Every structure is written in structure tokens, then in C-alpha cells.
Amino acid sequence: MDATPPTRDELCPFPLRQSIGFLLVRTALKLRLLGNTILQEAGEELTVDQWGILNLLWESDGQTPVELARRADKDKPNVTRLLQILEDRGYVVRQPDPKDRRSHRILLTEAGRTIKDRLLELGSTCHERACQGLSAQEVATLKDLLNRVYHNVS
């Protein structure tokens, strides 16, 4: 693989519809729509964003809202709103943090743990559809490239 960086002309973002930013945003919006459609068609009253917060809790239960916001790359008010919805639906509870009285820990309820396998299966369905026609190596390369672009702009 050639490691020579592209020239400024090769990276030129015009026409707009060929710029990396446009292509990433367009793809992310369509992927979110696909995920929400799959959830809805399966009878789940959750969004992709709510699914993402549950996923982070399945990885590590008992995080604070600040930790969840950082790991989800979302702002705290957005995560707080998502947590309220998940709490109202009985998937999570807030408990005072024993080490910091100003903070809370978010814990999965039994319902939040029980729904894990079903939601992970729906997530897999979404990714399978999104990656149709791509080889396993292409998917791995795509993930690597997206992470590298992310780190370049962070």
C-alpha cells in the first residue's frame, strides 16, 4: 500500500458530494435511519442512540453519565435525556455514587440485561445490511481508515 499522503488537489472537497465530510455524514445519517427502522420493524420502542447507551452499559455497568457521554462521543445533556428515557422504560436506574455524593451511577435493571441478546442481534442485522458486498478485510480496512480520520481531526 502506498503511504504517500494525497496532494491538496486530490483532497479538494469540491464537488461537495465527493468530500470526505459529506460522504461520512450522509452515510452516518443513512446508517442511523436503517438502525432505527430495524428496531421499529422488530417492535422495539428504542432508538439507535438509546441502543448505544445500553450497549455501553452492557460492556461496563455502573458508569456515571459523564463517563457514558465521553464513551458515546455525545454531550452530557443529550446523554442525560437518553438516560431519562431508558429509566422511564425500566431499562436503567440511577443510584448515588458511593464515592462522590454529587454523582450517580447508571445501572442496568433486569429488563435492561434481558433485552441485550435481542438488541445485539438487531445490531448485527443492521451491520450485515450496511456491509453487503464488502469482504471481511474491506470492513476491517474501512474501520481502520475511519478511526484514523477520526484521530486526525480530534
The end-to-end span amounts to 25 Å
Q: Which structural class should the secondary elements be placed in? A: mainly alpha
**How does the overall form come out from the CA principal axes?**
globular
Largest sheet: 2 strands, antiparallel
Put simply, the count of helices is: 8
Residue runs with pLDDT of under 50 for 5 or more positions: none
Beta-strand proportion? 5-15%
Question: What is the number of E strands?
Answer: 2
Strand order of the largest sheet: 1-2
Output the radius of gyration. Answer: 19 Å
Q: Give the oligomeric state of the chains in this entry, treating copies of one chain as homo and distinct chains as hetero.
A: single chain
Sequence of secondary-structure elements? HHHHHEEHHH
**What level of helicity do the residues show?**
55-70%
Overall pLDDT confidence: 93
In short:
It is built from eight helices and two strands, in the order αααααββααα. It has 154 residues and is mainly α.
Written description of the protein model:
It is a single chain. By secondary structure, the chain is mainly alpha-helical. Helix content is 63%, strand content 10%. The protein is built from 8 helices and 2 strands, in the order αααααββααα. It has helices at residues 8-11, 20-41, 48-59, 65-72, 76-88, 110-114, 116-130, 136-153, and strands at 92-97, 100-108. It has a two-stranded antiparallel sheet with strand order 1-2. The longest helix is centred in the N-terminal third of the chain and has 22 residues, at 20-41. The chain is globular and about 55 Å long. The model has no long low-confidence stretch (mean pLDDT 93).
